[in-house]
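The protein record filed here.
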Amino acid sequence: MNPDASTIAAGAPIEVDLSPIAEGQDIKVFWRGKPIYISHRTKKQIEEARAVNVASLPDPQSDEARVKSGHDQWLVVIGICTHLGCIPIAHEGSYDGFFCPCHGSVYDTSGRIRQGPAPSNLAVPPYQFVSDTKIQIG
């Protein structure tokens, strides 16, 4: 027995199977009516995100603080630009992360704001790994 659509829209947790997501690929799911990007990051993307001088960021946060320990290859963020609420595009922009074409905000592969008017990083929703290949959001 699964919850009905109104219960899910109100914020019931959702489970997402990560096994079909190829390395370097992103998918978008919806939780509480919000787009959630799930990125299966490559080793190169992780290394680039971790090489950034955190103090140089407009909203300083380490890559390690934005992912679950032991699951560094998975980035889960709410896909709503922190400037005016537009939906950014994955794998776009100068940092191969997310790009909001409406006003030019550019986020890196950790979802951190790097350029543009957005005041803060893409938010990380509450989530947990229920197995090595499945997460629960909410």
